[in-house]
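Exercise 7. Given the encoded structure of a 158-residue chain, write a plausible sequence.
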């Protein structure tokens, strides 16, 4: 094994520091593309319903400053409430209008939502698509709708 001089050790240390700073800067750029808001988009507000044959009904109530997510089926029980004081709406991808609604105190993975329109029984209705897989409508129905191609899952910038 060979011995490195003091100058060589200093150069290696600077290279290692520079490399790690570059990695941290890259992570910052990824997050910089997202923008946080304190209100949800008006088009997405209201009560939304989704029916799944295995899980029953899921209900999302989205107001300007709160989100209430609830599913009370026997096998799958979920309830999440984000109060006004903790609500953050993040526009994760500006080109595709991919939104994330989350509690500002919790840093965890959350579902993504997109708003769109879909033809149901000959008329266009507003829909909310969760994670590119689940279609929510403003009315209850015992039908699982297929997500339109233009609203299917698109990877977020995270």
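Solution.
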């Amino acid at each position: 094994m060979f011995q490195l001089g003091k100058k060589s050790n200093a150069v290696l240390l600077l290279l290692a520091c520079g490399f790690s700073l570059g990695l941290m800067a890259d992570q910052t750029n990824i997050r910089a593309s997202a923008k946080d808001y304190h209100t949800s988009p008006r088009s997405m507000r209201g009560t939304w319903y989704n029916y799944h044959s295995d899980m029953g009904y899921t209900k999302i109530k989205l107001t300007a400053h709160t989100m209430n997510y609830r599913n009370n089926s026997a096998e799958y029980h979920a309830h999440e409430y984000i109060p006004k004081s903790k609500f953050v709406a993040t526009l994760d991808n500006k080109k595709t209008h991919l939104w994330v609604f989350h509690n500002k105190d919790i840093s965890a993975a959350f579902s993504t939502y997109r708003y769109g329109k879909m033809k149901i029984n000959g008329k266009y209705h507003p829909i909310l698509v969760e994670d590119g897989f689940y279609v929510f409508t403003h009315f209850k129905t015992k039908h699982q709708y297929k997500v339109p191609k233009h609203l299917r899952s698109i990877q977020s910038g995270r």
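Remark. The beta strands are 35-37, 46-52, 56-62, 67-72, 77-82, 87-93, 98-103, 113-120, 123-130, 134-136. Students should compare their own answers with the one above.
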